[in-house]
């Protein structure tokens, strides 16, 4: 069996297992699964997990081992087999994550935990086994880090709710340092509602308690699930599924909840309902030992003419739209927020501003920009292309200006006009954020 057939075989077998687990969990909401550990180290599961880890790439953890080193020098088969043996013998122990601080737009930093590759492999295999069980319990209001769900679906849910359900108020909520403040004991209690396999619970506890290394110093972890870990998004969804369940069971009359990981918004008909929703959220967060960020959380009016709110990189508000026949009407639309637009402009400036870029060929510049441009196109035109393209055209204009400056500095004696310069870039395959040409 060649490599392609082997990959397809392991993929099919892993999906069959996931489907079986999902159907079993869906059939009985109170069932607890007691024999899962042996599924984690199954050969088909581990090899499919390795395929996904390798596709995600990522940098090395505290041991300095890279995916490239495993593929080209150490050997993939040996690496997967040794990991399987450690799991079978019960001698697998995770290493601390390497912490890297990522700058945020507000000047603060977001801590990112980077596990070693072996931990990523075991976490991915565990996620593949656990995810279908908890997917059977997750609610329709949750969209983040779930199979066949995306930010586009969350944004379109907001648009449909406001446009067709007479919604005029929104509670836009931010949770302070969510991933870093999840209490381990309460998280494990929620996991135990579905999983009774002690060895799987031990794995999760070890990952939570593994600690992190920052600037050469080891730090213990008593709270939180590190952002960057493969298993972390699933654990985060399990914890906030408590909120989703409480809301669906008791408070849907107040408004519609839309949640993407730790970002959430509640869409209400009346201001009084929105104010009650805030009190409910505070009570649930207190029980979960979480805190609402008062600076970023707010009550927003959605009436036409009001400024709206930002959510998932988009700004959401009523906009005047032209109907056939020249009639103007207000429709609730979503387009890139000011913060997102600034990030895009800064990214273009970062790619083209340094003087060492002058040594790049035009083809190198195009090859560097195209994946970035395609990513923006895929994300910002997916949910509301008609509203977004008008704003993304400004990014196309900004890219054109930066590329013209690059050309003029690189070819100082060039007499090409601006249109000729951009024609040269388009001839090399330069993409457009709007899809209409740069």
From TrEMBL:
<feature type="domain" description="Reverse transcriptase">
    <location>
        <begin position="83"/>
        <end position="316"/>
    </location>
</feature>
<dbReference type="Pfam" id="PF08388">
    <property type="entry name" value="GIIM"/>
</dbReference>
<dbReference type="InterPro" id="IPR030931">
    <property type="entry name" value="Group_II_RT_mat"/>
</dbReference>
<keyword id="KW-0548">Nucleotidyltransferase</keyword>
<dbReference type="InterPro" id="IPR013597">
    <property type="entry name" value="Mat_intron_G2"/>
</dbReference>
<dbReference type="InterPro" id="IPR000477">
    <property type="entry name" value="RT_dom"/>
</dbReference>
<protein>
    <submittedName>
        <fullName>Group II intron reverse transcriptase/maturase</fullName>
    </submittedName>
</protein>
<keyword id="KW-0808">Transferase</keyword>
<dbReference type="InterPro" id="IPR051083">
    <property type="entry name" value="GrpII_Intron_Splice-Mob/Def"/>
</dbReference>
<dbReference type="GO" id="GO:0003964">
    <property type="term" value="F:RNA-directed DNA polymerase activity"/>
</dbReference>
<dbReference type="InterPro" id="IPR043502">
    <property type="entry name" value="DNA/RNA_pol_sf"/>
</dbReference>
<keyword id="KW-0695">RNA-directed DNA polymerase</keyword>
<dbReference type="Pfam" id="PF00078">
    <property type="entry name" value="RVT_1"/>
</dbReference>
């Amino acid at each position: 069996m060649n490599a392609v057939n082997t990959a397809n075989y392991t993929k099919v077998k892993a999906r069959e297992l996931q489907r079986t687990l999902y159907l079993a969990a869906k059939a009985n909401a109170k069932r607890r699964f007691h024999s899962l550990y042996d599924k984690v180290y199954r050969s088909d599961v581990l090899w499919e997990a390795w395929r996904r880890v390798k596709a995600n790439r990522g940098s090395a953890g505290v041991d300095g081992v890279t995916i490239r080193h495993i593929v080209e020098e150490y050997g993939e088969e040996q690496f997967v087999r040794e990991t399987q043996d450690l799991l079978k013998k019960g001698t697998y122990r995770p290493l601390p994550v390497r912490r890297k601080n990522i700058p945020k737009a507000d000047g603060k930093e977001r801590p990112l935990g980077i596990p070693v590759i072996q931990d990523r492999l075991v976490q991915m295999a565990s996620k593949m086994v656990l995810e279908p069980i908890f997917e059977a319990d997750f609610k329709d209001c949750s969209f983040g880090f779930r199979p066949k769900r995306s930010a586009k679906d969350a944004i379109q849910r907001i648009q449909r709710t406001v446009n067709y359900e007479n919604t005029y108020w929104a509670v836009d909520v931010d949770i302070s340092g969510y991933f870093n403040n999840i209490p381990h004991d309460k998280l494990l209690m929620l996991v135990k509602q579905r999983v009774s396999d002690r060895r799987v619970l031990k794995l999760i506890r070890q990952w939570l308690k593994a600690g992190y290394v920052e600037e050469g110093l080891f730090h213990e972890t008593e709270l939180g699930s590190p952002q960057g870990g493969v298993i972390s998004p699933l654990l985060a969804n399990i914890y906030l599924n408590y909120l989703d369940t409480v809301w669906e069971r008791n408070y849907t009359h107040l408004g519609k909840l839309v949640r993407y990981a730790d970002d959430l918004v509640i869409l209400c008909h009346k201001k009084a309902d929105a104010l009650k929703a805030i009190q409910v959220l505070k009570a649930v967060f207190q029980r979960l030992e979480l805190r609402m960020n008062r600076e970023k959380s707010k009550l927003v009016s959605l009436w036409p003419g009001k400024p709206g709110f930002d959510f998932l990189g988009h700004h959401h508000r009523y906009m005047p739209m032209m109907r056939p026949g020249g009639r103007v009407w207000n429709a609730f639309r979503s387009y890139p927020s000011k913060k997102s637009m600034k990030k895009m402009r800064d990214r273009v400036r970062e790619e083209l501003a340094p003087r060492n870029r002058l040594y790049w060929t035009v083809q190198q510049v195009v090859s560097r920009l195209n994946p970035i441009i395609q990513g923006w196109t895929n994300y910002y035109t997916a949910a509301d292309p008609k509203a977004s393209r008008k704003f993304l055209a400004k990014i196309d204009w900004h890219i054109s200006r930066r590329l013209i400056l690059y050309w003029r500095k690189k070819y100082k004696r060039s007499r090409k006009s601006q249109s000729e310069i951009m024609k040269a870039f388009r001839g090399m395959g330069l993409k457009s954020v709007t899809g209409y040409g740069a």
